[in-house]
Amino acid sequence: PIPNNIQPNLCKGSIIDQYRNSNRYDKIIFVGDGDNDVCAALRLDKTDYAFAKYGEELKTTYKMYDLLKNQYFKQLKTELLLWKTMKDVHEILKKKNIL
Fold first, then answer.
1. InterPro entries under this entry (predicted)?
2. Does CATH place domain 8-95 in 3.40.50?
């Protein structure tokens, strides 16, 4: 499903579908921050990883996190992981033995 405020040509979900259909990957790691990243996160499976940027102390609203948390959380099939810097993503993937 594409969120109402996202134009179909901006939905990254079709790219996730292409990766999945290629059968070349057993896991997909998706890192995003904007509202046009929501449809991609919603296409991930339970074996995949969705990273949403989060930055409350900066008084910054990252739409991907807000939308997934407040409107689409029940549709999300994978764990929602939070990041502020790419170092956070790297550390989380190391802890999960992905790297």
1. HAD-like_sf, HAD_sf, Pase_PHOSPHO-typ
2. yes
